[in-house]
Amino acid sequence: MAFLWSKISATLPPNEEQFPLQFSEKVALSVVEMLKRARLQLYGETTRASRILNAQIILDYSWERLNTGTWRHVDKEWRRVYSYGCLFKAAALCRENPSEEEIRQAIRTCDMGLLMGAAIMGNILQVIVCILQSEIRKLAEEEDNHENIEAKKRKIASPHVGLIKEELAVPRIKCPSLESFNANHLLPLKPVILEGIIDHWPALNKHPWSVEYLRSVAGCRTVPVEVGSRYTDEDWSQTLLTVNEFIDKYILNKVQVSENGYKAVGYLAQHQLFDQIPELREDIRIPDYCCLGEGDEDDITVNAWFGPKGTVSPLHQDPQQNFLAQVVGSKYIRLYSPEDTEKLYPHESQLLHNTSQVEVENPDAERFPEFVKAPYLECVLQPGDVLFIPVKHWHYVRSLEVSFSVSFWWS
Amino acid sequence: MRWFGFGFNAFAQVCVQEKSDKEDSSSSAGEVKVNVPIELKNHVGRSKIRASWSRRASLFLDEEMSVRLAGFCAFISNESFSPVMVDTRGCRDAIISETHLTLAFPDRIECWDLQSKEKVPSWSMEILTQSQNSDVNLPLVPGGYISSKTPIFHSLSSHLQAKSLALGGEHAILLTAAGAVYTWGQGSHGELGHGGLIPEEEPRTVEALWGMSMRSVAAGGWHSVCIGDGGDLYVWGWNESGQLGLPSRGLRKASQQKNEPQAGELCGSVSACLGEERHEEVYISIQAFPALVDVSPSCEIRTVSCGSRHTAAVTTTGCLYTWGWGEYGQLGHQTTTSLDEPKCVEFFRNESLHVVDVVCGPWNTFTAAVKKEVLAT
């Protein structure tokens, strides 16, 4: 285990003098003093408890700053301070013959820094978490008794035939040229399902994504999970779980989660998982058609959407173009044009102005009489399909089985 | 009157502890987390205390060099408890933030940048002779109030008739001469008490308290507290560490996990969830309307103060109750456990001390107390 510390130590600057602690005047000198104390302890002799205590002070103070004001306005400096706190804490946990539990705690600490902090020292938390993950993999036992839900190439006969009306089906097209996609779909902002364009993804052939594969690649990593049937509900909340906990609790239903008789739905939704776990990033590709946009490739937001049967995203619109790629399982999706926005009764509050008040599959005809008159397109998205959702196009999504989708928001 | 302090002490702002020769974990935590009240030395005569995260400011109202600082003193001096390097004679009130020390004199207000070596205040204003007779009640100043971030001065409409003002982490709570309460600022944690989560740019009356006269207000990082004329305590805002004195889900989960040390990471959190669901308790995470808190049966609250995530209240019978975040010993119960129910700080009872005042820093608590015999005479 001393070997683990030497690997981590190798990622750090060789001495205190070369360890940068530069902050804007936004960070009070007293806080910089605590950071300097922690740096001193990193390269000096002291107790484990003392190192962890100092790291925790830095974390507690910066956590308070991260929770003050709106997230958008939180100064990046405080997110950097938070990341330094995570670095000092993870280093302290792994220094002296850490147990497996301590290594997992250190991984969780790094993940908190990756989720809430800002990159420091060449994204050192990412580097360290990879070292710690390999260590866990070496220690992990083999478990064979997991259900295997694999990504398969699209079958010819869809099991969900009959679920959608042919005349309302989103058109499908196989591997269109850039020019024809641009002319027929992007410029006129018309939805379409692109087939065959992600067949080359390792996620669909070399490393077919499955629950087992996700566990092995990301099991000990901490991710944000949405709990509750839909984000417009009162009892909707967000929590942090490891991927293993999420899979056991919400995908495989190993634990009976019943509140008043209803099973709570958990959804790993709208999370930039591929920034956090580079191995998964290797299994996907940015669709070529994104180059038709005006933005840079760096500005494309890639989100993971992983959940059980029955996750619902209420009818809403987004301010960018979207390619929704289906990797595992299938989803029912309905699309409404922005021209019909008035019939969709968006919430009035600023927070939810992009979301419709209507429950698409159970609309209240008294409160929302115009809704049934709004024309729509629908589809069942299968593994290998990519749905083009034009900017501002209203969309409603419900998973029909365990599902993993990847979305690309681009302009 | 004697002052006591407990809680966060990483900058020796509560007290300077002797470092023991051998490095053992308990001693280092003991220096940083003072979890039982310790008497503040050199605090004789009438004094006030103000605290920021890393410092304590003591105002000695009877003395010449009337403001002294303890804690992080980078540019002031190397002493652990030193006079401020500015003329503070005649200072009646002060506020200390992480970066600024604001002093109220009979004829002027001065705001000093603690991080610079400037010999002049970074901001100041004169007080007109007519207002000199009334006591300045910082952060209120004639015409408005001051904060520690620019813009320093904010005007307040005179029709509000502001009597006292408390500034929280991201909000403000105002008490008027008529006993009404106004709030403004960020509202995303329910700290404005209007029933929602939206921010307010201008002071807005807390309608739920309309008709009841309040006599005191206090603000924490994300919570608000006020005392009614009859000594009742009302709380609202974020309850993530039990700072409202209402049941907190986070505290119950944490205590369940502590009780199951054998369980692996996965089982611990899952069974903690199960335990809580079986009991079907109601937890409050955000209280967006004022709620009445029963601090102690049939006791009137005399004064209250809030830290960033904890609350401390003094009863008219001289007991100190604390609740909320306790990680740094700021609740004074000889533990670092957080509490979501008010608990009496036994130290003062055991020492026959009658508590008369409490002032909280973000992560610590300072109390003024007198010997019970002194009261009787």
From TrEMBL, chain A:
Residues 275-411 form the JmjC domain. The keyword Transcription regulation applies. This is JmjC domain-containing protein 5. Its main location: nucleus. InterPro entries: ARM_KDM8_N (IPR056520), Cupin_8 (IPR041667), JmjC_dom (IPR003347). Pfam families: ARM_KDM8_N (PF24472), Cupin_8 (PF13621). It is found in: Nucleus. The keyword Cell cycle applies. Its cofactor is Fe(2+). Keywords: Biological rhythms, Cell cycle, Chromatin regulator, Dioxygenase, Iron, Metal-binding, Nucleus, Oxidoreductase, Transcription, Transcription regulation.
Automatic annotation (TrEMBL), chain B:
It comes from the Eukaryota. RCC repeats lie at residues 179-230, 231-317, 318-371. Pfam families: RCC1 (PF00415). It comes from Ameca splendens. This is RCC1 domain-containing protein 1.
